[in-house]
Each structure stands twice: as C-alpha cells, then as structure tokens.
C-alpha cells in the first residue's frame, strides 16, 4: 500500500478501486500519518487554527436518523440564543483571541433571512478583522447570496455521504441528496470558502462509500472538510448502531491531508469524545484546526448531537486553555488569526 500512499502524495488523486483498497485495508498507518504531518507542516508550520463555535439554536425542522436534535426527539430541551447572547459570545471569544466565529445550529425558522442578515452584519461591523462561518444547513441560493453580501465568509455543510443510496439510509424521504449537493455547489459559486464533510462509521457506510467521498472531494475542491466518528444518541433511530472508530477516522484524516495538502481539517469534538486524546491524535494524523466551544455553559448540554459529548461543562476560557496545553504537549501551538487556507500546492509554503 506504500506505493498508493506515495502516489496519492504526488498526484493528489486515485482511482475508485485504489481508494477502496486503501480504506478497507488501512495499511501502513504510521507511514501515512508521518507523511500527512509532514505535508501539514509544509503548509501550516506547527500552527493550529482555532474557530470559536457558537451553537446558537437546537431547534431543527429536520429529522436525520442519526442526530440528537432531530425534530422528532421530544426529549430535547430546546433553546435558542438571542442576538445579544450571541454577540456576548463573540465579545468573550474576541478577548480570548478568536478571530473566526462559527454560527452553528439546527434549521430553525425563527432565525429567518432577515434576522440572520442583521446578526451577520452586526458581527462583521463589530469585528471586521474576524472571519464569520455559517453552519445552518440548506437554504436557497438567494439566501446564501444575501448572507454572503452581509459579510459571511465561510460555510460548513457536510455532504454526509457522496453515495445517494447511503444518503437515503441516513435520512428520511423528505431530505434530498440532490438538494444537499446543489447547495454545496451554489455556496462555492457565490464565493464562500466552503466546507463539506461526513461521519465515519455511519450505518450502511462501506469502503466504497468512503471512496466516493474522496472522489467527490477531489472534484469539489472544498477549502475545509469536517469529519468525525458517528456516535449514537440514545433518543434517535440509530441509538443501537455501533459508533465509528478512532482508527478509521484517523486514517481518513491522513488520506484527506494527502488528497488536498492545504485543506483546513479539524480534529473534531466527536473525535475527542470517542478517545480522551482523540484531538491530539487527529493533529498527529494531519489535522490542523480545532473548534473550541464558545456557547454559554447553560446551553452546552442541550446541543447534544450524540451521547457523552465532551466540553459541555467548561467555560470558553477553560476550553481554550485545555486545548492550548494539549497542543503544546504534542509540539503545536494555537494560532491567533483568521486561519484562512494556505496557498494551493505549487504556491508559497510555510518555511517556519
Ligand atoms: N444544521 C446544520 C447542518 O445540517 O449542516 C449544522 C448542524 S448539524 C447537527 C452538524 C453535523 O453534526 C452534521 O452535519 C453531522 O455530520 C454531525 N452529526 C449529527 N449527529 C451526529 C452523531 N450522532 N454523531 C456524529 N456526528 C453527528
Ligand atoms: Fe437537524 Fe439533521 S436533524 S439537520
């Protein structure tokens, strides 16, 4: 498998059957991780970018089978932060050194176009040196354009899986694979820095599905890819499904780094949830972003996408200190800037 890994590093692409073989065998792990770390260092040095995550609403009109905040979960205590509470999170985050804010939430009709535009422009006028990322699901192209015009810079919308029949196993009929993909292409066309992504080990996922994800990412060329293990939530139809593994998630992180060297690749909270050192291991497999939580402590536990989510009791400052320490222990440092993607391969690389 070393030859395939070497070729991926040189050519940034593989055929479907080659992806499938690599992903199913997960061979030469340490060899892959060493290369992935090396490539990340060439582009980003030992800098780890931080994003301040604000989980501003857990109301959701959707009903994904895997997600703890799905519409039909009547046991969720629903909350939404007010505009002022969100601005307070940004203020605290700014003082702590965050220069990217991520507004993430369920698809909540209260936060309509008008309210979101007002919120986006207020955040951008108060913090013009910060990047603003939205992660609020599927909207019309017109709304995406208006949010962009109001100042949003980035958009995270995981494609969840690039295989249509797998998508249909993860979602009820009312969800459309085609619309998910259409949204992603529209976001790109508008000019957002776009992040797609998927869970590892979700029900029905095969090595072929993951190969399709890699092929989609080669074609789509996102600036970011968010991946993390699927973790069951006790009040969902997937409550009894097995969780994704640390091993598979790390392997996919390594492959993604070689597929697109300048990718922004988070070591996710889900990774830190299945393993106490999951985020450190993610960085050592090629990730270069962490997303500490800036949401007020009182709502943290209510944004429970899956069971046993970490960092639900900490204040933002504690989260940041803890991550800082964790990163220093493995030879990296958190970086206080917007954390835009490095230039494409062939462009300027990091020499520090
Ligand atoms: N509503 C927005 C959207 O659809 O993009 C953002 C919030 S959504 C809850 C964020 C992501 O969490 C999803 O794209 C999904 O991949 C992930 N997620 C949901 N349930 C999960 C679970 N049980 N285990 C791991 N990840 C999960
Ligand atoms: Fe809210 Fe899936 S349940 S987007």
Number of strands: 9
Q: Write out the strand line-up for the largest beta sheet, numbering strands in chain order.
A: 2-3-4-5-6-7
Q: What string, H for helix and E for strand, traces the elements in order?
A: HHHEEHEHEHEHHEHEHHHEHHE
Q: Which band does the percent of strand residues land in?
A: 5-15%
Give the rounded overall mean pLDDT: 96
User: In percent, how helical is the residue content?
Assistant: 40-55%
Q: Helix count, per DSSP?
A: 14
Largest sheet: 6 strands, parallel
What is the terminal separation in angstroms?
31 Å
Question: Structural class, judged by helices and strands?
Answer: alpha/beta
Q: Which regions are unreliable across 5 or more consecutive residues at pLDDT < 50?
A: none
Over all CA atoms, what is the radius of gyration?
19 Å
Ligand identities: S-adenosylmethionine, FE2/S2 (inorganic) cluster
Given the C-alpha coordinates, what overall shape results? globular
List the helices and strands and how they pair.
Blueprint: H1 2-11, H2 16-25, H3 29-44, E1 47-50, E2 52-57, H4 83-96, E3 100-105, H5 113-126, E4 131-135, H6 141-150, E5 154-156, H7 164-170, H8 177-190, E6 193-200, H9 207-220, E7 224-229, H10 246-259, H11 269-274, H12 278-284, E8 289-290, H13 297-300, H14 316-329, E9 333-335
Parallel strand pairs: 1-8, 1-9, 2-3, 3-4, 4-5, 5-6, 6-7
Helix pairs in contact: 2-9, 3-10, 5-6, 6-8
Bound molecules: S-adenosylmethionine (SAM) and FE2/S2 (inorganic) cluster.
Residues 60, 62-64, 67, 69-70, 106-107, 137 line the site of FE2/S2 (inorganic) cluster (FES).
